[in-house]
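Sequence in, structure out. Go.
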Amino acid sequence: MERLVLLDIVNKKPEIINNTKELYNKIYDPSIPKYILGINYLSDRIIDSFAKENINLQGIIDDYSDETKYRNIKIFKLSDVSKDSLVISCVVDGRLQTAMENIDSNSILYKLNYFELCLHNSELFDYPQFCENNLADIDTHGKEYEWLYGILDDDKSREILNCLIDLRYNFNINATKHFELNLDLQYYDDFIKFGSNEVFVDCGGFDGTSSLEFIKRNPEYKKVFFFEPTSKYYYLAKERFKSSRNIMLFNNAVYEKNCTLTFDSTKGSASGLSINGDVLVRAIKLDDIINEYITYMKFDVEGAEYSTILGAETLIKKYKPKLAVCVYHNQEDFWRIPKLVLKYNPEYKVYLRHYTEGLLETVMYFI
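Output:
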C-alpha cells in the first residue's frame, strides 16, 4: 500500500488537463453536436455557461424522463444521440462511473465529465457542491491528511482516502473506478458489531430509513433517539415508527448549543442549516437531551456534523458509543472530526468507507 504523498497528488492535475485538452476544446467546435447527460444543478450551470459563450447545445439526455423539453431544450434518450456527438455527463454524485460507461456502451465518439470542465475553466464551470473548499483545504492542511492516513485502522480505509483525495482534489474521475454503489452497507458495514440492548441516536434521521434498518438488525434493541428538523420527513418517519417500541422522536436539528437556526427545507434528504434557509428550526444540544447509556450514534446532518459532535462531548467521553459520521459535506471534516473525537476519547479505532461512485456518502467510523 503506497503512502499518501500530497506532492504526487498535486502533480496529477496538469496531466489530466493535458489529456483532456483536445476534448475540452471541442465544446467550441460548432460542427460537433453537444449534449448534456443528466438533469440537475450542474446541467443548469452548463446551460447558462454555454449561453454566455454562445455555444450551441443540441439537447439534454435523460433516459428516465417522460418530459420532452427542459428549459426549452429538447430531451433525448442516449440511444437516439448521434455517435459523432460530444456528451458531457453531469453525474458526479452517485453513479459517476455508470454514467460514463453508458456513454461508452452507446459508442459516443466524445465524452467529458463535469469535473473535467472545472479543471479547464473553474470560472465558467463552478466547482460542484461539497467541493467548494477542497483544493484550499488540502493545500493548507497536508500534515493533517498525512496524520489521518497514519491513524486509519485498515488498508481499505487508507486506499479509500487516497482515492477520495485524488477525486476531490484533482477531480480525477478515474479514482472512482475503485468505488461501488452500495448504500445497503452504509452505517452497517461488516466491522460494526452489535449486541443486545443497543441504544441508537439517529442525527439527521430524514424519513426513518436508517433507524428502521437499525431496528431490523437489532430486534432486541433498547431504545432509539430520532432527530429530524424537517417537519414533512419527521411526520413521515413518525408514521413509519407506529409499530416500533421505545422511539424517542424530536422534530429538531442537532447542534453544539440550544438555539434557533435558519434551515433550507427545500432539498429533500440534502436539506440542512443555511443562512439562506426558508424556515427557522429549533436546534438542540445532545448532551442536554440524552442522559443515559447509548451504544451507537449516526451523524448525517448536511454539514453540521462537527458542531453536533461538539454538543455530544459528554456522551462520547462517558459512554464511548460507536460513531458513524458523514464527512463529505465539508472537506476539512476529514481531519478535524477525527481530531475532535479522538480528543474526547483516544481509544477509538478509525475506519473510512465510501458508498457511491461519486462525491456522496463518505462515512468515517469510530469503533
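Check: The mean pLDDT is 93. DSSP finds 13 helices and 17 strands in the chain.
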